[in-house]
Amino acid sequence: MPHRHGMCLLDTLLEVGQEHLIAEVIPSREGLFADTQGVPGWVGLEWLAQAVAAWAGVQAVREGDEPRIGFLLGTRHYHCETPWFAFDQPVRVHVTLDFRADNGLGAFRGELRNSDGRSLASATLNVFQPDSLQALEAIQRGGTP
Fold it and tell me: Which of 50, 60, 65, 62 is nearest to 2 (CA)?
């Protein structure tokens, strides 16, 4: 992922398959979003989005392509069981592909789990990955790619 200045929030990719990815985040006091109580629960949505981006990048490389730009269009039902993620407590980030259309639209189920496997948060993420920057520019102008 091309994020810079502390915005690459995933620590480790643990497993990548054709339709899923599992990553790990260890919330840190030095992290960009750290507060005195921990990392706010809403940051979990960004962890899920970055896991989807990592999955897409791995798939592109496996197919002999370069990773492409992608967008989180929205989420449904982000439900977080905790207002804060505790420092130094690993969080497993699971994303699973629900569908991927030829026009670049896709949807993923995402879940955050603690080290015991208990669900901490879940959501459905709707994403878009244009074929190219030219296709994105055409869409932005209101045309078709």
Answer: 50
